[in-house]
Amino acid sequence: MKKKVLSILVENTSGVLSRVAGLFSRRGYNIDSLTVGETEVSGYSRMTVVARGDDQILEQIEKQLAKLEDVREVRELVDGHAVCRELVLITIGVTPEERPALVSVVDIFRANIVDVEIDSVMIELTGNQSKINAFIRLLDGYEIKEMVRTGIAGLSRGAQNGLADEEEME
Asked: What is the pLDDT of residues 53-100, one digit of tens each?
């Protein structure tokens, strides 16, 4: 199965997220990751959706998304032609003796310690999925108390990112 990352420009209307997610559920497709946020133009949001399937399923997903009423653009984010990032927050149970070794791993990955308690440390890391997965693998000997990942957010490289003139969008 292949993975496809889609950047979907939508009108920021009530129920748009439900309609996009509903398209996936009605057809039995799974969403691996979904992030949504406002764009630089008022009234528009960008969704980044990661889905898996064979070529036919992924092509069908893209075509069906483009047909939705609130969708203005669907663009595949292709490796090498896009920048995709994810944020992870992890709370690690750690003793004072274990802290220096953990801080070394944090430094190597250019992560940040954002909270310290007597028996735990909260770490923030931003990067591509492989960097985050590698970091999590290195935490294998530690107690992960809690973890949350934001999902992928991404944009195409270069000038093609921007929305068209606001007048065109209206």
From this structure: 899 999 999 999 999 999 999 999 998 899 999 999 999 999 999 999
Closest among 92, 77, 54, 97 to 158, alpha carbons compared = 77
**Helix, strand, coil % in the chain, rounded to nearest 5:** 30, 40, 30
CA distances from 65 to 20, 22, 24 (A): 7, 11, 9
pTM of the predicted model as reported, rounded to 2 decimal places: 0.82
- Rounded CA separation 7/72 (Å): 11
Walk me through the domains of the chain, giving residue ranges and CATH numbers. Answer: 2-76 (3.30.70.260), 83-153 (3.30.70.1150)
